[in-house]
Amino acid sequence: MANPTFTYSLNCPMPELDFDAITLGHGSGGLLTNRLLDSGVFSLFKNEKLQQRHDGVILKPKGPIAFTTDSYVVSPIFFPGGNIGDLAINGTVNDLAMCGAKPRYLSLSFILEEGLPLAEFWEILLTIEHAAKKARIEVVTGDTKVVDRGKGDKIFINTTGIGDVLPQGKINIKRVEVGDAILVSHSIAHHGMAIMLEREGLKFEAPIFSDSRPVHVAVEHLIEQFGKDIKLLRDPTRGGVATVLNEICAQANLGAELHQNALPIDAVVASACEILGIDPLYVANEGVFIAIVKNSIAAEVVSHLAKFPGCERATIIGHMTNEHPKKVLMESGIGGRRVINMLAGEQLPRIC
Amino acid sequence: MANPTFTYSLNCPMPELDFDAITLGHGSGGLLTNRLLDSGVFSLFKNEKLQQRHDGVILKPKGPIAFTTDSYVVSPIFFPGGNIGDLAINGTVNDLAMCGAKPRYLSLSFILEEGLPLAEFWEILLTIEHAAKKARIEVVTGDTKVVDRGKGDKIFINTTGIGDVLPQGKINIKRVEVGDAILVSHSIAHHGMAIMLEREGLKFEAPIFSDSRPVHVAVEHLIEQFGKDIKLLRDPTRGGVATVLNEICAQANLGAELHQNALPIDAVVASACEILGIDPLYVANEGVFIAIVKNSIAAEVVSHLAKFPGCERATIIGHMTNEHPKKVLMESGIGGRRVINMLAGEQLPRIC
After folding, report:
1. β strands within chain B, DSSP E
2. How much is the mean pLDDT over chain A?
């Protein structure tokens, strides 16, 4: 559905099977589960570890690892710029990157609703395979469950990731200090607005695509280049930039001072937000990260970042301060300051 | 309900909150999510790693690790002998054990349906905490999503586990040979029958409880004691003993010869199966494992196993053979032999 990057499915036709939708039997663990796996998952994700078809897999990490989990329940499952499949890969890849780790291994667990068309499942599998390859992460173990019609919503995906911690880095909230610069890696609010417009059937002058993408290559470069001066990394997904900064301030017992004019927002996203009365600071992102870095290297970090696709609009958006601990304040273009609270209710459910 | 072991909730009252059911806002990633986590999860699972509240956690494994994932969608969520919470812990703990690993770390991811009573969520959290403590596995990272009413079914849980591979062991399907003994660790078919009776509201002369329990202590002992002579471990969950043995035979390119009279089945389970016309070989277990061991040590393994709670009825149920590759045959009490196929359709959906 309107994913501009999704053309490879044409080259990889769906296997011919004698069923065209998921049934409860596909979650039985028996013959039908095995046929589903043989036809789809195992033919796409060919690797020695999955081939063993044990309940789990043996891995041999060489040092400290990062470990992160997320369940994806986004609705609709197909949206401009991606689908639940690549979102589930990119989201977990990015969480590993936020730990200062190089993504390595992934578990993949499906909760399918009875009646899910096999064609949709196949398209999701293809994007998963594509996204995993792109992020150089290996799907090494998995699980498939089926729930009866009306007890799920097409497909939920859990991905749990393991990454190798980059030895040059030292990502830790305790290292954040007064004066540190707050960077954002790219223009914000794309993912949430793309989902919202798709869900509500709204059209704007130009389409808005989700920013669902992996950011680990840029992150690895930053850590290799700047080491411990990269102090904290967080991805502003649910709750957006505002919520993540509030969490950082609460945990660091410091304040954040933002400059509204510095926030990178695409014109089409900004006008969609304005028309719908939505503050882009609270809108979910899926390919953007916040970095707290030593102030003296901030400008250099920005110019390094800007070389990576998807980080072209990297910007310093503010600084850490001790003037108003646990509070995020934003200075507007005309000089006023307002408190940016954590997201209170639910702006847009099931964004990821 | 009717879980005979669940009394500790009385000693750990639910936190007082101004909401009594899950709302969409609890999945927002914002203030409500934080309040839910502060009130419940984080007060129960106190450990340094979770306290960091990052997107992931850093772990330092000392050698090879096992990695396994499962999503739990069991219905009903409370059943005689347990609930979805301890099932999600025991299931993943047992999958790690089946890899020959000592369970260490767990990720915990919830998909909650809007409207889930907080009291039920709290009871599930308490059993999770209890089961994790019992299995000495640490919950180190997590995720909470909420879906709108009618788009989920109360609660789904993904647990993904990491364990340290026991160096004395060498669990591998390739090591299974002709003549190896097939052991089952305890009486079978409890979990599936407990769920079925609860779901259908059927009552028998004596209640049937799920066998949901961790088996890793017995497994660790076996591997320490018998090392590489323990060749393969599998837990017969979905699809039961029949399906697991078929998978083993297919992968090992060998056959299995079972003795019907040797199968340990409790009288009440056997009669429930008979009345309902269900073959206990296809019924799911959650606290039983199959071990393929060198025949010469099989009797000794059984006598070791029988000392562990939940393994008292450990038995040799058959042997591996090359006479009928990829086929499981069972000899009946009166001498006949029949083929035991893999589970074909779906006997009982959403068993785990």
Report:
1. 57-59, 65-72, 78-79, 82-83, 101-113, 138-147, 155-165, 181-184, 230-234, 255-259, 290-293, 315-321, 328-331, 337-339
2. 91
